[in-house]
User: What shape does this take?
Amino acid sequence: MTTTVTASGLGLRYGGTRALDDVSLRLTPGVTGLLGPNGAGKTTLLRVLATAVPADRGSFTVLGHDPGTSRGRHQVRRSLGYLPQTPGLHPDFSAFEFVDYVAILKELTDRTARHREVRRVLEEVDLGDVRGRRIKKLSGGMRQRVALAAALVGDPGFLVLDEPTVGLDPEQRMRFRELIAGAGEGRTVLLSTHQTEDVAMLCHRVLVMARGRILFAGTPAELTARAAGRVWSSTERAPGAKAGWRTGTGSFRNVGDPPADAELLEPTLEDGYLLTLDDVSAEAAA
Amino acid sequence: MSTSTPDSPQGGGGMTWHVAEDDLRAYVRGELTAPLLWSADTHLAACATCRALLAGVTDPVALDAGWERLDAELDAPRPGWFESLLVRAGIADHTARLLTATPVLRRSWLAAVVFLLLATVGVVHTAGSPTLFLALAPLLPLAGVALSYGPALDPTYEMAVVAPLHGFRLLMIRTLAVLAAGLGLNGLATLALPGYGLRALAWLLPALALTATGLALTPRLGPVLAPSLVGGAWIAVLLAAQAAQERGAGSLAPFTAAGQGVAAAVAALAAGLLFVVRDRFDLFNGSAE
Assistant: This one.
């Protein structure tokens, strides 16, 4: 599959903190999930790839453009849709006016073409019927869809989404997943999230990040497979488990290194994620 | 653009006017400009007579494009009073929308500035000295410009930074608008102090110097610290000048001819520095993750 985004040796320090540490990656069309705990450097990585913040070290290209130059950065930005972690929306604007404003920022100055594009993206996120409603009167899920519509203006080839499903109820989250899946058809989407279900349902590839480094890059199935043989059931919380919790059936689900006679369970992507983080913590402690 | 001919029998029921043929031709060529364009769009949606005439003056492909545009126009919400005012003043509609999104051009901000200036003018009349007004007036444009761009007050800052529109261009569009509003209000307040003649205009050059310096330092110090430091420096200069005045130095130094010359020089230097660092406004200037 064609590589659309490549990064090599990206590094960035904020004061004494190493926010990005030798990050290299390759993205292909489709949705790639970016998992990691708070402070892992996910938002920093997204900001660097979105050209908001320059890296101290390393380089990257987006759709063949090098943002290291002013001209290249401009080209990357013309190919980019960005939904930040806390997308600010002008509450007194209508959905149409806000997306129109972002379209102007994306240099769509021809009024007719711009309005056509605004209508298209609002329809794409199912907000065509409320396009004239003030943003302050929209629900949280609708506001998030307005922000997604703004990111989709201009049909960008590279879409960067920073935790777009945070704060949404399950129904809204499901609706948003449908939209992200649709957005991932024919374009490269990098989706930062805490929700392993988002990754399991949406992503063809997943990156796991902690302490500014990429710990894992592969398919969701490969991440899940990391926990194969390391998830087991017991009647008590197993003392050697990295994590363990009582399930609805009353038995404990344990993740870690099982005893010899353990009753093994089918691992999930979340198990693989937890073990990946834990293995690195153990290495760091050693 | 309209004619006063009565409505034709075949359509346009209830219409008391029709779009002039020359305007229709300009319309199909895409050369009709707002607000005539909006008027024609709205009228054509309701008037069969003008639509029929329109079909006669254009080719089918251009007509289809025109209908598509009309559809888009009628679908778009009406712009607010401020945006409409800007467009009627000759500002391009996309620039007007950018200005409408400038936080300090909201009614609440402008009302606060007007209130502050009125109070200051009142104090000046009571105290019999313009010093307070001269000290305050340069700070208002500085604060207005500082608050019009950056993560503190612009909710769309992060989206704007990564947009193709050059950050410096957006900054300048907003700065000019805020300066026009701020300096305009200051100017009106100055008119309320006729007894002080040109002395009451001594805020202008310091205002330009403070604003330009605040902007020029923003890429290095950030959008909060830079204007705060510049404002603090201005107050420190005024306090020092007042102390000198109490020792018998005559007028407050910043408002003497020499002081005005220094302000002009600082404004010019800061404007030059701002131009040099213009590309820095293309990058995020806020806290990390």
User: Anything to note?
Assistant: The mean pLDDT of chain A is 91. The first strand of chain A starts at residue 5 and ends at 14.
